[in-house]
Amino acid sequence: MTDRRNSERGRRRRPDDRRRSDEYRRQESRRQYDSQSRPEGRRQNPERRRPEEHMSAEEHRRREEIRRRNERRRSDDRRSYEERSAARREQEDYGERRRPSKKEVRRQKEELRRKRKRKRILLLVSELVILAVLCVVAYGVMKLDKIDYTKLDKEKLEVYRDTGPYTNIALFGLDSRDGEIDGGVRSDCMMVASINNETDDVRIISIYRDTLLKQEDGEFAKANSAYARGGPQAAIALMNRNLDLDIQNYVSVNFNSLVDIVDALGGIEIELTEEERVHMNNYQVETAEVVGQSVQEVEEAGLQKLNGVQAVSYSRIRYTDGGDYKRAERQRLVLQKIVEKAQKANLLTLNKLLDKVLPQISTSFSQKQLLGIAANALSYKIGEMRGFPFEIAGTDRIAGDNASYVIPVGIANNVTQLHQFLFAEENYVPSEIVQSISDEVSELSGIYPENE
User: Fold this and answer.
1) Would you say 176 and 256 are in contact if contact means Cβ atoms under 8 Å apart?
2) How far is CA 302 from CA 22, 142, 305, in A?
3) Taking the CA atoms of the chain, what radius of gyration do you get in angstroms?
4) What is the DSSP string of 132-163?
5) How far apart are alpha carbons 77 and 187 in whole angstroms?
6) pLDDT at 47
């Protein structure tokens, strides 16, 4: 009866008791195995306790790997323990934080409202700036639509070579009575404006209109006849061919539009000699008739404020000492005065000026290019202006021709000086084409450089 109760009690033992009994049996069986399989009942391999001097290299390596692995495990355990401890401390600290007071809550909300307000203001200002820029661009595009745009054939411009950081633009002032600006009329003024894109310095060369140069068909004629023969494309090709330039764009202005420009700017101040005063008053009669304005004669020499008709008449004077050379110098002076006055003008004046002048302009620039030039217009610095050729033999005739020409003393030498003036190129050597043109002009005129 007692044995039966004990067996039933054994069957009714709790799970924990059973686990303890199972563990005890496993430990006991392990002890028996160790005592039978290992000498003297030792539980560790005696080789692991051998002195290091009796161990092989392979045993050394294996022991070192075991040591390093154990160190890594202890380090990982220590790191994970520290991370868990830090997370637990953070949770405890968070639980111990006190609730903010009502005053602090109001202060935090006020600070948040101020931040949102500043953000909205910045966003509004950015939108206004973008809108202003778009309005300016739209205004510029609307104004530029009044210009006459001409597309040039780049293959026929006879570009010699790239001049580096310089943008070279051909400027033509046309003596057009009927408002024609795309060709069929002679260019009364021929200039090359060279813009240094790194410094915004601008240098200008005016080519004497009667200069003997090689035309597109191989004939030698006056420089200003190229525009009448083939329009701006032929005139640009003439400059590139004879001067080793890389001009690819132009701006042509009816010379009579200078009347509107000067009047819109309120006039320009010019120092007049007595001789210039007399000839200017004579030229005013024709200029006033062409533009439909009245003549206002200047009574005395000296510093005078000239209106549009007077300024254009002044720039056309050629019957004084210096002839065409002095005429080109006057044109450069008028252009310089206009640029200086325009850079100081207010927006209302410039708007009035653009409305009158843009319809009388022809160009090969795109609207995008013109907007880029206009954006930098105020930063451009007009530098020295010179006439070309630098060395001339006076106004002479050539064999078989009764017309008078400006004869360069060696075109090649003058081109060398031109590149030094515009691009600061020391000892520039002209191309073979320019050398050939220079020799032909010398043969036609009989005028040779001193070194030949």
Assistant:
1) yes
2) 128, 42, 10
3) 47
4) HHHHHHHHHHHHHTTSEE----GGGS------
5) 92
6) 47
CB neighbour class for 386 (10 Å; exposed up to 12, middle 13-18, buried from 19): middle
DSSP structure class, residue 210? T
Q: What is the pTM of this model?
A: 0.63
Give ∠ CA 52-54-57 in degrees, rounded to 5.
Answer: 75
Which SS3 state, helix, strand or coil, does residue 218 take?
coil
The residue ranges of the chain whose pLDDT is under 50 are: 37-44, 46-48, 95-96
258/269 Cα distance (integer angstroms) = 15
Question: Could you tell me how many residues make up the chain?
Answer: 452
Q: Which of 257, 302, 255, 299 is nearest to 281 (CA)?
A: 299
The residues near 378 (Cβ < 8 Å, ≥ 6 apart) are 343
User: DSSP 3-state assignment of 57?
Assistant: helix
Amino acid at residue number 420: Q
The Cα diameter of the chain in Å comes to: 159
